[in-house]
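sorry for the late reply, my laptop died twice this morning and i had to redo everyting from scratch. anyway the thing you sent over, i finally got around to it. pasting the sequence first so we're on the same page, its 272 residues, then the predicted structure underneath. double check i copied it right bc i was rushing
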Amino acid sequence: MANAAAVQESVQAPVSVSEADGIVQITLASPPANALSIAMMEALKGALDRARDDDAVRVIVLRSEGKVFCAGHDLKELTAHRADADRGRAFFEKTMLLCSGLMQTIVRHPKPVIAEVSGIATAAGCQLVASCDLAVASETARFATPGVNIGLFCSTPMVALSRNVSRKHAMEMLLTGEMVDAGRAHAFGLVNRVVPQDALNQTVMNFAQTIASKSPLTLKIGKEAFYAQAEMELSQAYDYTVRVMVENMLARDAEEGIGAFIEKRAPEWKGK
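ok and here's the structure:
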């Protein structure tokens, strides 16, 4: 029986996925650390890709099991490859590229992604939160980019962090490696709301349900435009968003939504 249990544990999926009413919940299910091992990142990427291709899905929620949302990369997995002939270089590159690709998958995903943060989010786990479109944290959640404490600056987490909070706050986290409580994370702009633990999931689901009620086409257009214009010079951003607005106005959902507003009725979205 012990062998059977070991086999079952070894094949247990690192994430679990559930869907209801257009909202997919992807749960990091490898406590206690929910570390971003190769298996975890591949499973997350796969779940996100399936949600992208499912027309019934409107919103995605990333959550976790246990007391840690995500502790970042699996340091034991990385360290094991120092015995490789190249001292781990190929495996380190594979890990960092896979992680960077995962974060970009979230940002470029056509559907909004909400982080439901219960517990600790550190290093690439903090990066995961920062990469999501929205984040709601429990009052006991804490955040850090502590790589500097172990001789490994959080350079890739820095990309997402510095695009969410001010430079001074980002550098404070990166240079000190200290934990930031949920209240300060909210003040920094890393999370949208901080709520009691027992209200966390319901708050996230309220967010998700509100967003899921909108036109899926409009959400896709808006999310893509938001991240694109953020990287542009001001006049270029306006030129780009003028084109986006014109194309959006020509969409059937915009015609339906404006018509429904004028006629004082609920719109019927077609996603076109």
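Residues 1-10 have pLDDT under 50 and may be disordered.
thats about all i looked at so far, will dig more tmrw
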